[in-house]
Amino acid sequence: MLARSGLIKFIPSVAADPQLLSLKIGPGCSSVGYGATQEIGPFIVDTNGHGLKSNPYAWNKEANMLFLESPVGVGFSYSNTSSDYDNLGDDFTANDAYTFLHKWFAKFPLYQTREFYIAGESYAGKYVPELAKLIHDKNKDPSLHINLKGIMLGNPETSDAEDWMGLVDYAWSHAVISDETHKVIRKTCDFTSNNTWSNDDCSEAVYELLEQYKQIDIYSLYTSTCIGDSASSDDKSYQVMMKRTSSMMPRIMGGYDPCLDEYAKAFYNRPDVQKALHVSDGHHLKNWSICNFKIFNDWSDSKKSVIPIYKKLIAAGLRIWVYSGDTDGRVPVLSTRYSLSSLGLPITKAWRPWYHQKQVSGWYQEYEGLTFATFRGAGHAVPVFKPSDSLVFFSSFLNAQDLPSAR
């Protein structure tokens, strides 16, 4: 932890409000660039990175928000300990975030006893449960206690085999791939194997699936893609995906405005912005990117499944809410349903719609120890697509309330 620094945004709300740590996608993508300035922060990047605009649906209306660039190397964060970059993985990230939290609470003791929650999307589906488990285990020592009450996960990577199969079935059921391609994948791909890609028929069929998804936005099936200089990054990400047995892949483009990633890049590479953030002197710029592909490529430790962690956290009585935007093809609703089904939890309240502004926002079901909900018409980063709905959802989560059930 020597000489380590990063961009950390703390956005207070009201003194008595709970505390939320927000972690985002990746591994290697920016919680500040995505969460704080595209989704749930009080200010959102404006067109072409010219500035910021107010977000009327910011989550700091309900909680004190903490956005952490994790792991080191994301955004403007860095470490002077070179070996840190050789050890990046799930365990390293959880331990690093845990150490950060204790140092943060020591610096701001006012928040030490507040109710504490962790939220995340996509690959944070692994970050968040792993950090929650570490906090839970360490809380056995009263001197290390963090008042963790629950976690909330959106379109989360959960269990590689189920995530892959959900991706495949969703692509087929939404007419992205042919019947023939789907049949080949179903027949030849064993996603539980460490040698999935050793089967040429499987690899070729999955490659065909990815080729079809390259024509649209995998993170938002029914919105336009961003036409611009960023297109070259797509090929790089898809090629990386085919080299791994993991289901990891950085977010490429997505959002109601498909160019939001480019707006964030333009904003954080402005000299005046970097100077205000104390990451440069205003003249010698640092090259900020929304995702660090080297971190993604070099990731050395990824849990195949966090389902065992879910079981432990449920047994500990933590509040766990999971949600899915139902037009995301990357970690689609089917992937999450397959993963959660493997828990075998008893249903306590049956599948039913929930409402916002007199319209169906989605559907949800309550299990013993877990709530699962959908957002109708939302892609991968749900708050971008459904900002008002997601704020209502977040408030219900914090207050352990049922979602609105009438028009």
Q: Provide the low-confidence segments as ranges.
A: 1-6, 230-254
| CATH class placement of the largest domain | Alpha Beta
Backbone CA Rg: 20 Å
Mean pLDDT: 88
- What fraction of residues sit in β-strands? 15-25%
- Portion of residues within helices: 25-40%
Structural class: alpha/beta
Contiguous helical run count: 14
What global shape is seen? globular
Order of helices and strands: EEEHEEEEHEHEHHHHHHHHEHEEEHH
Give the termini distance in whole angstroms.
51 Å
Strand order of the largest sheet: 2-6-3-8-9-10-13-12-11
User: Remind me, CATH topology of the largest domain?
Assistant: Rossmann fold
Total beta strands: 13
What is the fourth-level CATH superfamily of the largest domain? Alpha/Beta hydrolase fold, catalytic domain
The second-level CATH architecture of the largest domain is: 3-Layer(aba) Sandwich
Major sheet? 9 strands, mixed
Tally of domains: 2
Description:
By secondary structure, the protein is of the alpha/beta class. The chain folds into two domains: 4-158 and 303-398, Alpha/Beta hydrolase fold, catalytic domain (Rossmann fold); 160-251, no CATH class. Helices cover 36% and strands 17% of the residues. The protein is built from 14 helices and 13 strands. It has helices at 32-39, 90-107, 124-138, 160-173, 179-188, 200-213, 232-242, 260-268, 271-276, 293-298, 307-315, 333-341, 382-385, 387-398; strands at residues 4-5, 8-11, 19-23, 43-45, 52-54, 64-68, 78-79, 116-121, 148-154, 319-325, 347-356, 359-367, 370-375. The protein has a nine-stranded mixed sheet, sandwiched between helices. A hairpin with a 2-residue loop joins β12 (359-367) and β13 (370-375). α4 runs antiparallel to α5. The longest helix has 18 residues, at 90-107. The protein is globular, with a radius of gyration of 20 Å. Mean pLDDT is 88; it is low at 1-6 and 230-254.
